[in-house]
Fold these 2 entries.
Entry 1:
Amino acid sequence: MRPTVHDIAAEAGVSLATVDRVLNARVGVRAETRERVQAAVTRLGYVRDVAAANLAKSRSYAIRFILPDGDNPFMHALKAHVLQVGDPATRLGGLERLAVSLDPVPSLDAVALAAALDRAGEQRPAGIAVVAVDAPEVEAAIGRLTARGIPVATLVSDLPASGRRHFAGIDNIAAGRTAGGLMRRFLSGRSGPVAVIAGSLTLRDHRERLSGFADVLAQGAQALNLLPVLEGGDDPVRVEALAGRLIAEVPDLAGIYSLGAGDQGLIRALSAAPERRPQAVLLHELSPHTRQALEAGLVDAVLAQDPGHIARSAVRVLRAFADGTSFDPAQERIRIDIFLKDNLPPG
Amino acid sequence: MRPTVHDIAAEAGVSLATVDRVLNARVGVRAETRERVQAAVTRLGYVRDVAAANLAKSRSYAIRFILPDGDNPFMHALKAHVLQVGDPATRLGGLERLAVSLDPVPSLDAVALAAALDRAGEQRPAGIAVVAVDAPEVEAAIGRLTARGIPVATLVSDLPASGRRHFAGIDNIAAGRTAGGLMRRFLSGRSGPVAVIAGSLTLRDHRERLSGFADVLAQGAQALNLLPVLEGGDDPVRVEALAGRLIAEVPDLAGIYSLGAGDQGLIRALSAAPERRPQAVLLHELSPHTRQALEAGLVDAVLAQDPGHIARSAVRVLRAFADGTSFDPAQERIRIDIFLKDNLPPG
DNA sequence: CAGATTTTGATTTACGTATCTCAGAATCTG
DNA sequence: CAGATTCTGAGATACGTAAATCAAAATCTG
């Protein structure tokens, strides 16, 4: 059997109260006594039963997610996973005393986001997870939370200078480089111009993906020629117009890399003129539309990050910060997934 | 506050004892009373506090992992992750009352494996996780465990006919198809023979990968010519000899797919004659050697399954079976990871 | 309707830890 | 050495659930 606090008390020859004072770092214990207890702890290999401790404390972890509104399918999926993690009927929700709440904010509105962060902080939650927008107001709001001791994790889009404690998302420069590596190999041998469609270059993650991608395309023996970046505002309608013109006007187009959202528009443009489809088409994030396009051969590969993993990871990490415990960085690393038609997860 | 059993009792107008009888499906409750209690449960949205329940039951989950000995780097990594999951100082180990033990068995020895399974079953563990060998003895042993009500999960290599409750590993046919898709695209335009190096075709996962790969290569406009499969017994020395001869004797070799282990030998052979390296080299599993080869450009892509995920997933799933609760299939799905030089996880 | 049987209530103890109180012991201060 | 101060001990209570006992009530059987 695992040793309990009672065993520690007996082993150290002190009372339960003293063991408690040492274990919970309370004042009023002589240094010598403290050491006796700690020696007993290591000798017996005691580890606190976290479940019992939380029961006794009737502690619960309030975690607030602040996510953008709107019709972005990835954000929708993320939202669904957050709700699922917080569901007390699930393992995480039930066993770990979570109280997850979800605050929607208008997409890409820095002022509203900063206000939502301040409001969320008022409730003194155990942690806050937020999809950051790259703006000084947001940076300052996160800084205020951190200063008040509330751990903040950024999701998907990072803001390293804000003082956030953790980022749950992919390395977007590496994602861009990965897209570049795939593009080079998928076009091995041949040359021709390559187009990039972004949402907006004011978005940090889009800028980063672009820089990684451009980097790799410029390297190596035969350099691929990158066309000027098109910005579609993550809007399917605008993306469709841009992609349609692109395909019509650049006859020898070798590849397209869509690094933002609005891919439904790109897919429509591609299926409207299948005979002019470039040799390699890459885009980001799995959704019903992108899955279908991959299966139909309209798209060659999809880069993705797992929204379920992001939601679970953010909760685990914020909990660990709240408790002052550690976590496994390898488990919390969000992978850059590459999906081809053949390794698509079911569903 | 979340409702407790006391609230249920008050709401239903019955005693605590009766609530307990209903919740834990004990006998001696009239159908009508049972329904009153269940109505109160749904009305108040009661969910059992699993942590408190486990504390009261002083339940702990003994989970045995049966893993092959030997110098396979993937199995080493898997072993390390299993030990980490079982460590009571970690979240999973601490919060979830796990008692994980690890039984090593000689690699590829069906008789020893069957004996180990029987021995593990004697202790009546909450669950058993095993890397299956495709043999009737093993199938029978797993069947006996299942018959005794002990849930078994196969890891990495499956044995569907055995009656195992769960498989934690990748779909190897899909992995082979994925490799085929990458090979086709990496060789786009050009033709030439493609070689496959397997460990042994008596291994189910190797056979499956081969069949998926061959399938994809045969499809499509320009068929790639598959050379007869080489079997290297997962042994670096033998693989090196095979690969060396292959590179020397097939001048127009377009690609190599190594679907088993022993890749250190392949990498040595490739670096010995870098000028004759085929255009596309694919292999399985990340290890210090394969990482380095990817970074050096000797290998183009690595297909992988995350051993940490496999270990954690097996524990979660076996726990759920032991409790009769459900789990999230999407979370437990082991992905076919594709790593290029650019999306390699650090470390 | 008496007696047997089934169902229900009331109460207690336990799980491992946290937190509090109050008294007593040990140590320090002047 | 008295008095103040700091440490320590013993005990109680709580967290939410499980599991048991025993008595009382309700229902069924013949």
Entry 2:
Amino acid sequence: MPTSLTDIARQLELSPSTVSKALNGYRDVSSDTRELVLRAALELGYQPSSAARDLPRGRTDRIGLFLNTALEYVVDYLSGIIPGAVRCSQACGKRLLIYTLTDNDPDQLLQVCRAGEIDGVILFSTHYDSHTIETLLEDNFPFVVMGRHIPDERVSCVVPDYYDGTRQIMDHLLGQGHRRIAFMTRPELTTANEARLQGYLDALAAADLASDGQLIVETRLEADSGVAPTRQLLVLASPPTAIVAAHDLVAVDVINTLQAAGLRVPQDVAVTGFDGLRAGFRTLPHISTVQQPLERIGERVVELVNRQLNDPAALPVQETLPVQLVLRGSA
Amino acid sequence: MPTSLTDIARQLELSPSTVSKALNGYRDVSSDTRELVLRAALELGYQPSSAARDLPRGRTDRIGLFLNTALEYVVDYLSGIIPGAVRCSQACGKRLLIYTLTDNDPDQLLQVCRAGEIDGVILFSTHYDSHTIETLLEDNFPFVVMGRHIPDERVSCVVPDYYDGTRQIMDHLLGQGHRRIAFMTRPELTTANEARLQGYLDALAAADLASDGQLIVETRLEADSGVAPTRQLLVLASPPTAIVAAHDLVAVDVINTLQAAGLRVPQDVAVTGFDGLRAGFRTLPHISTVQQPLERIGERVVELVNRQLNDPAALPVQETLPVQLVLRGSA
DNA sequence: GCAAGTAGCGAAATCGTTTTCGGATTGTCC
DNA sequence: GGACAATCCGAAAACGATTTCGCTACTTGC
């Protein structure tokens, strides 16, 4: 129903081919007719049908990002990386699309890819299974994993330096004189978790401190996930003077729980987060955290997908981006 | 490069038409060949090309939602409505796509619509201008506005009952004995703002209280937007005993600022939010707020778009959904 | 056994672009 | 003036599906 290229052709008594060439900057069109065509296109508000354009080209110039909105953490993290991802994709002449996934249907991702709705896809850490990755590899479909290291050299991924970030936190806390430092892990066994835990343990060892199993507690990914573990720590015979939370959303819970118990942050207990999400500004004091280069991650992830698009033979890249401790008051 | 319908046809020595009909449940295919085709399609991981399918149909079965990620509020709100919107769109056999918009280019929305990438679009309150709406109306392109009432009977929209919600808050606070109640407005002049303010003023009038201009302060939409206005209220000669924040994110700032100043919530100052976002659980006490039926809004918005798709003559609907005060501790 | 109906399949048009190729008109050069 | 190049345009194939129509071969009914 919207105006098509043929409409313009009819109105100007030209052939569709000429109109197409005029619009696409071919040289074999006189400047007169080109101007006529451009004016008519503007007047009629012409926009080429994306389906009709994509079909012969075999490309869509679209990149997909799949999102499981069930998890608050995902949404917060995503809103951090999107500006960079959008900027980069626009610079590459692509559009970034967010697909909303229903929780338990990983096939949808494959369907969208195979249907050719997008040229490449960004996988966000928490939702993919190895079958998805294996299939994408078989299909030779461009994709990049974000925020999670995949131990497979055929897979490109972009991750923040979890180990170094945790070391930075620990060095700071140890430098402040803290000796009983609690550590909150996430339940899932990912390389990110392992790297963080290793950073914690190594820092303790480097300071000649023994690790205390009671100080290592588990959190969940849902809301309020920091409350229970904090209470668990507070009833210890010898409670911690500092708490290294799994990420900023957990740290928010931790701080609120501590303050509700009459403890001052950071005087009585220091608290650190991770990621540098906007949630870190939702407490007073604001959260001292390890700032991930979120926008940069968004950029790189799109860049890497784009590279695969332009050069299918490009070798996969496993990239670790530097992070930086930001002190904002809570530690 | 992925397997096409023709590939299956060649392999089985059938015509493309027969394969298509077998896959789409036509009756003029023998059950034998149908089974053959289905098996081959499964084996090859066949997925019909969306471009090739959409082109002759003139439909995409996709609905777009445009998102400006610059604003934290938008992301939080969106994560609330998405589950309902996704569920409903799947029930209608559509897919919900989120388009990331760069801040200052409203034309992108029109381009996507005119290119036929989507069948209908959901406009989220904070980013659209009247030109966009006017053009969509001219194009006869299905759309629904979410979270903002548009004073134009040709436009469908779904909004929470801002007036009633504010009345509920005020009735509760007045019932608690509060007499000096501060009100935080948003800077933009929208019907939502007006409705909230009217609810505030009407409630005061109904209680025979005069309104005090000093108690009505303005917030911004950005992060930390509640801090400054709260401080402004605290230095008043006669400070408020209750603060009605513009929405939950503002209320988070308000509570933190009050607690940092040594005031207890709600004993010294009661605080209320609006919307019922997840941020309301990030303070202690949790925020007493007016819960919008977020999932329901997501559902209705998609339903209304879908109705326009199925029946282009359907009359526009301007819907106000009921809200409910939820007491969680801060008031 | 013959007309009529039915089941199963393929041919071909269609959607709106892009892109290659060839044709026509003009101009240029010797 | 004739060969050749340059300029501008249109014809037509292609992308991969859907869908209508027609054809064949078989069944059914009398």
